[in-house]
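Box 3.1 A note on notation
Throughout this textbook, protein chains are presented in two layers. The first layer is the amino acid sequence; the second is a token string describing backbone geometry. Keep the layers aligned when reading.
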Amino acid sequence: MEAAFARGASRPLRSGLSLPLAAASFYRPANNTAPLVSEAATASAQPGTAAPLSLLQQQTRNMHSKIVIIGSGPGGHTAAIYAARADLKPVMYEGFLALGIAAGGQLTTTDEVENFPGFKMIKGGTLMDQMRAQSEACGTEIVSQTVGKVDFSQRPFKYWLHPMGDDEGLEEETHTADSIIIATGAKARRLDLPGEEKYWGNGVSACAVCDGSLPIFREKPLVVIGGGDSAVEESVYLTKKASKVTVL
């Protein structure tokens, strides 16, 4: 059976003052850093003082951060590590099945990675787990809740979260940040053909450069689906790997 490469396409972000985004689901503080709390949350429960806030209350209060990172792929974690080492106390919204992809991005759906420096071969999910652990070790707060909207019209920048399990509505709380890094990455454009999901990563791919050198594709007849410049670029690359390349 001929292997197929369906050229992936990034999902462009819409410009404007209010920018819908995807990220996604519940709060997980870093192991070596304290949760973000207000002064009221740390006050002792004495007469005339505010009672400590529960963790859920702390999560839903309006929060201001020096820097917020939306996205949890290699780019997002690289930004988080550098920001944390610079004592900027970054907060990352890593996403949970945002656009149908687990936190960590497309690498979590990649079985074997052979082109990342330092590893002869590593599982994509394992690589992203290590990046996440390093971000946390440096002091990044990681939140798995969806960022549904941002407003860049004035500083500090504003953003709103989707309620847990709801990708349509927005929570009432308005959160702010001095800087926001958007690292939401891309999602492959699939064709929804019979068997596509079954053979994804095992005969069907969206990245010729990533997977073209793997034994399952090398010296095999390959099909590239697409007719734009990206499809042609992928096809030219695959001529060095495949026994035959057909463009549909």
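Residues 25 and 164 are 5 Å apart (CA to CA). The longest strand covers residues 175-182.
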